[in-house]
Amino acid sequence: MMRTLAVIAVIVCQWTVVAAESPPRPNVLLIVADDLGWSDVGWHGGFGKTPHMDRLVREGVELDRHYVQPVCTPTRAALLTGRYPGRFGPHAIAPSNRRALPPGTATLASALKTAGYATFQVGKWHLGSRPEWGPSHYGFDHSYGTLTGAADPWNHKYRRGPYEDTWHRDGVRVDEDGNATELVAAEAVQRIRAGAALRDAAGGRQPWFLYVAFHAVHTPVDAPEQFKRLYDDVRFDTDPAKHDSRLRMAAMVSQLDAKIGEFVAALDETGQRRDTLIVFTSDNGGIESLKNAYVGKVPDSPLNSENDPLRGQKNTLWEGGVRVCAFANWPGFLAPRQCKSVIHAADWFPTLAGLLKLERVENLQWDGVDRWMAITGSGDAVRQKPLCIVHASGRAVFDGEWKLIVRKKGPAELYDLTGDPFEQHDRAATEPALVEQLSAIATADAVSDVPEIPADLKDAPH
Q1: Whole-prediction pTM value?
Q2: In whole angstroms, what is the distance from residue 303 CA to residue 312 CA?
């Protein structure tokens, strides 16, 4: 009898391992915060109160070395295509209202749609601010939010000019009352709840892909009063303007966190939690002080985000600009751990394609690589090829523990990120052979970039 039970136990254990290695096709909830700084969040000991995200980090995989591009449009391009943004032209490596991706570009959304997923985009698009450049042309069944980058949280307007009015549903302009973060979250929750009833042609569960790109915490920085009251006992600065600025920022961080908590609650209540992989990242590091250039009445932000102890901020190639808050959470399939492997936004398309065994994704010229084994801790954590991050000022190359920043103007900088993660000691002068080796990688990577803006975009407002 005991022998029989032992055999059964082995079979059950073997089945469990197989199930964990070959999971069912999960829903994918991809959440992107905007301009969230390294030390804006609770799990990094920052000033923001983020209990919901803190819990997702504790119960999931903290992606401690998750890299993105230094600014928004390029990260979104990399995330959806698996390719570095320079492959689409110089306009795609900076924030832009021009069409970032050529018509017909394969995206994570189009690949999942082909595989039978329902696909939704909610929030900020910023890959082309005209309806004909919107999400519906790149694999999304439905979309809602702004076609542009940021928007005022109260009137939803962009900057003055041809793209000032940008709020839309499925590419059709709409005007709605309410706070932008609340509206985006409400739409996402509605999609999550409706997702429980989705069925494929055979009557089985139809998985969904929901890409929620929050405007929070990008300028204009503000949030409803209920989130400011969370900080009634905190004095952020003796200067009233700086205190108010950081208070608005902290409130917006907590509002973002609360909305993510609502997503998890909706998944729990509809029985979809174990069927859903949640991925969270910011599009770049935080910006520490800035003016408000958008249409509306929100004040400037003289004391805004915090990236310490990382060096630099948004729009720089130092760690504070490109290493961001990120995690993955999937109960039953991702055990709690901290992943210290290098992962980049461009890795998510090939990673999910491998996990979901997507077909017809050959010859997509991915720069990203499949990092699922690194995320789970089940295999080699070393990235298969160096990571390159392009910026208008130059390029960063990551290879093993070394990082080289090659600038168009000024000398190169070399850092040992294992011994010097905060980039305090430039080793370029003492390691000339490494500088030469990594510079060659940067030069070779640049060859694959498209040098000119596509002809049909040269006269488009940007």
Answers
A1: 0.94
A2: 15
